[in-house]
Amino acid sequence: MNPILPIVVATLAAGIGSVWIAAGIMRVGWLAGHDAQARGKGEQHLLSLAAGALLATSFMHLLPEAFESRRDARDLLTMLLAGVVFFFLLDKAELWHHGHEHHHDEGEGEGEGEDAHGHGAHAAHPPTGHRRKTPSRGGGWAVLTGDSVHCFGDGILIASTFMADLRLGLVAALAVLAHEVPHHISDLVVLRQTSDRGAALLKVSLAGAFTALGGVAGWWLVDRLANYLPFFLVAASSSFIYVALADLIPQLQKRLGARETMLQIAWLFAGIVLVMLVSNLAHEH
After folding, report:
1. Contact 176, 158 (CB under 8 A)
2. How far apart are CA 164 and CA 222, in angstroms?
3. How far apart are CA 204 and CA 16, in angstroms?
4. What does the alpha-carbon distance between residue 159 and residue 80 come to, in Å, rounded to a whole number?
5. Whole-model pTM above 0.70?
6. Is the pLDDT of residue 275 over 90?
7. CA distance linking residue 269 with residue 49, whole number of Å
8. How many CA atoms lie within 13 A of 127 on its CB side?
């Protein structure tokens, strides 16, 4: 069976579906309103869920599938290490660039930026998981550009997993959707500062559609490089691991009360269990 149709459907669901889920969450008020404490708790729960889903997808599905190819374990682990280091270097380059922008902005007027918008918004990023500096009035397009590039990369990663196994691709698409929801929430928050609600939703949805374009590109690429499929799977895994460990989990490392700590852990395990359930369901069908 040619997997192009499942790839297109899954990438559209992950890319645009995550935007609409994010908008729905904001609509019902979980992350909306003036209660910053409640909004922060909601974001923490989403981040925990996404981190669990990404780690489970990497360690329970992508890496085992790659090692089943009987490629040399040293080569695959070298690829994993190289991928993590690569995303780290991209992250450092982006932070260095943003640091220069921030220094320039401080010369134009202190007190604007981070305090004006809070700490809840973090980047819709290339597959590096970097945090973004809240953009100025004209910065919404920069956010959308970064989001589009990141979504295109997500599509390629989803396509590579579908080429290995349809149910593995479904699990990867679910993991991408889970970790994109909190990022799209922050995108919508930022864009609503310069656009109305409908325009912000349309812009972020169009950026999410780049996931499908990446899926088609990934299908064309991986189909012609089938012998290297295990390395594509390891590359996807390194991206998920880096996003979870370098971006999501550090945001969860806060001193909390016993109840909030237990909820945080529960949401983390919920992400792991969700990936396991979807994988088992797909396997049965």
Report:
1. yes
2. 10
3. 8
4. 18
5. no
6. no
7. 7
8. 25
* Residue environment code for 94-129, b if the CB has 16+ CB neighbours within 10 A, otherwise e: beeeeeeeeeeeeeeeeeebeeebeebbbbbbbbbb
User: Measured between alpha carbons, how far is residue 122 from residues 128, 187, 191, 212, 246 in Å?
Assistant: 12, 8, 13, 23, 13
3-state SS, one letter per residue, for the chain:
CCCHHHHHHHHHHHHHHHHHHHHHHHHHCCCCCCCHHHHHHHHHHHHHHHHHHHHHHHHHHHHHHHHCCCCCHHHHHHHHHHHHHHHHHHHHHHHHHHHHHHHHHHHHCCCCCHHHHCCCCCCCCCCCCCCCCCCCCCCHHHHHHHHHHHHHHHHHHHHHHHHHCHHHHHHHHHHHHHHHHHHHHHHHHHHCCCCCHHHHHHHHHHHHCHHHHHHHHHHHHHHHCHHHHHHHHHHHHHHHHHHHHHHHHHHHCCCCCHHHHHHHHHHHHHHHHHHHHHHHHHHHC
**CA atoms of 260 and 256, how far apart (whole Å):** 6
Q: What is the pLDDT of residue 231?
A: 86
Q: Which residue is listed with tokens 């479904």? A: 170
What is the distance between the alpha carbons of residues 169 and 14, in angstroms, rounded to a whole number? 11
pLDDT single digits (tens) 55-114:
887 888 778 878 888 889 999 999 999 989 988 887 777 666 555 554 555 554 444 444
Q: Which residue has the tokens 């359930």?
A: 277
